[in-house]
Amino acid sequence: MNFNPWHHVEVGEDQPNIVNAIIEISRGSKTKYELDKTTGMLKLDRVLFSSVFYPANYGFIPKTLGDDHDPLDIVVISQCDIVPLCLVRARVIGVMRMIDHGEGDDKIIAVAEDDVSMNGIQDIDQLPPYFNSELQHFFEEYKALEHKTVLVEQFQNAEIARQSVVHAIENYNKVYA
Length: 177
Fold this sequence. Notes:
The chain is 20% helix and 33% strand. It is of the alpha+beta class. The chain has a single domain (18-176), classed as Inorganic pyrophosphatase (Inorganic Pyrophosphatase, Alpha-Beta Complex).
């Protein structure tokens, strides 16, 4: 049996407040890596067409299934660039609601639980105001030169984000449990 981080790593004991995040892409990268659902390996999806880079560490929450039929995406804010396939305990602080290819594609926003510089952040409104703008701009622009449109609908607080996590866990359990 192959080890697949999506199916073999737990969501986290303290979910939906603190979840396990598996990083696919380090902050500052132009390289779009993605978990290969069949093998569990990290594969190169593409190098971003636009002159933009990921504004935070990016990955997924194991044993979840988003409305886009992929693991639930998570943006993990930390003072550090976190290497791909690193397991990070992430405190859920908000969600960015998106539509990508006509499907809901929530991006959970979290802070690295074990990064002392993030200790005081419990909700998205505690982030610097420019961060939401930077994140929205990145996701609206990173596919523009591929002639693909992404719509960022709104940012929601930690309570709504935790509901998204619970919904994605329930979706996963219906399909894979």
